[in-house]
UniProtKB/TrEMBL annotation, chains A, B, C, D:
It comes from the Bacteria. This is Heme-binding protein. Transmembrane segments: none annotated.
Length: 143, 143, 143, 143
């Protein structure tokens, strides 16, 4: 398994924030979690609201929890809301099931971490996460 | 950033309660939180029920969490209930997503705190919060 | 039982803060809880640190929990620390067992609420709580 | 009050990690919290163990909670362990009361955030935090 180093994590964040600037998005917050769901790096842009670490982490944690980007979790809300409720409960309340939590895969497709972004629309958040992951030479999986 | 002083917080509460009296509302409870979500001042009128501090704080905390008045959160309940559920979970159960949590902005539009009111209808609660904030010379943002 | 009204609660806070000013204490935070442990009123002076609502409430809640001012709880720490630990646990983590949580009694000695103060030394916090309660014509019981 | 921007937060982290390298310390984790206790930025060096975000945040959060660097909290353990236990409980388990949580003050001595570092000895963690804060032109207060 490739390691998701701090250097790569910072490259992901820098590229994601550059994409947000290019698209003229609202202030973003970006977290990188390792494969075990533990934070490697985080940045919250000036003007972003108070609870953005928790929201960004909730998207990324949810993706790692089920091995699918949080877009997949979001789709579950239509058909199986009780699954999401149970998942949130057994996670100890750590999951936010909307797009913007993107798995990071290495060349052999192994999950080596996840990126969570919040601040603009969920779709735009996800675009920035994918851009950041690919800028670091890794594979993004939005779900 | 302008500071939300105790003196201004008390002015907000006094004006909000006066508005409630003018409109002949039920007993109100009013909290003022600073920009970080920590209480500056609180008053619960006689006859108000037991858990009003938590409800008032939950409205104001939710507004600060996402940088939008709690009326915006309330609207999410129609389209994305699973987002609210996730938000509540990652906040540690600190959010009440109905109108009556109003952001306090300074002249440069920076968020310097939030007011939460509960006791009458959510719409009336919000009216009193807005009245209180404006009476203190600040800008109210209901969402 | 006499009711601990909002008017009396505010009188307690005002007198307590005046005492703090007279003694030239650090910024204080004062909470008044009703007999059920639920907040009636709270004020945090400018310059007081972030978590003062929780600390002030923890002192007052502890006093109500055992029917003795929090000075009594503080004394237990010497002889029975495991009692305090158990008490904290069964309260759901709501108790701070140092002086400054003072019971409010009516003329018949019934407990009608508690005042919690934090910001200066625990002894000075307690002096201000007692001063505030007596200024409202009620009886203070520091433990 | 001066804002603790993301740019300044990153400058603090970079300088703190450079100090760690200069002193040949173990892998460090550094968090910067704003004045309300919410994360602005975080970095965990490669080789650092799993729960370092929580430990670093616990030091910084404790400092903000009481308005004193976490070295002060650490000293309370000798004289008033039951105070620390109560403080931890009412914080919801968010405080780690050992050195390495350092307040960030602006020119007027207002608290604008806190830095928490973990990974080496608590004393060395604190040295890196102070170095980082001063490199950003701000004032460090270790407690």
């Amino acid at each position: 398994m490739t390691d998701l180093t701090l250097a790569k994590s910072l490259k992901i964040i820098t590229a994601a924030l550059a994409k947000g600037k290019e698209l003229d998005l609202k202030p973003l917050s970006v977290v990188v979690l390792d494969a075990g769901g533990h934070p490697k790096a985080f940045q919250r842009q000036d003007g972003a609201s108070m609870m953005r670490f928790e929201i960004a982490s909730g998207k990324a944690y949810g993706a790692l929890a089920v091995g699918a980007g949080s877009r997949w979790l979001n789709a579950q809300a239509e058909t199986r809301p009780h699954f999401l409720e149970g998942l949130s409960a057994v996670s100890g309340g750590k999951i936010v099931a909307v797009p913007g939590g993107v798995l990071v895969r290495d060349r052999k497709s192994a999950i080596i971490g996840a990126v969570g972004i919040t601040g603009d629309s969920s779709d735009n958040d996800e675009i920035c996460a994918i851009t950041g992951i690919e800028a670091a030479g890794l594979t993004a999986d939005g779900g």
